[in-house]
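ok so i was messing around last nite and threw this chain in just to see what happens. nothing serious, just curious
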Amino acid sequence: MEEPIREASQQVSEEFKTLVNAQDLNSLRHLQHLILGRLQDSNAVLSHYNDFAENCFADVSMELSRNTRLLKSMKADLDYIFLKLRSIKSKIMATYPDAFPDDSTSDAFDRRPDLELPQ
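result:
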């Protein structure tokens, strides 16, 4: 039983060998090696870039968090300054009612945009 199967498989393999040209196979093998080499080079370049980007991100993220803390501190300081200015202005208005004769100046006093509202 095995002998006829072996003969049939050999015959089929011989038929396949006649269908495919050996030079074409060598050409395909050569192209596959070229593509493999290029993919390995690309992989090495991408790995190097990923390492570089990771280091840059670590540097930038520390700087960004430091600048964010600084901006939050500056905003708190400016809010405190404007609060004090409003309080001083209200005290001046109470003491000297005609110090700001035009009511339009009170609207123009604080023209800061509210940064916490969505645009």
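not much to say yet. The mean pLDDT is 86.
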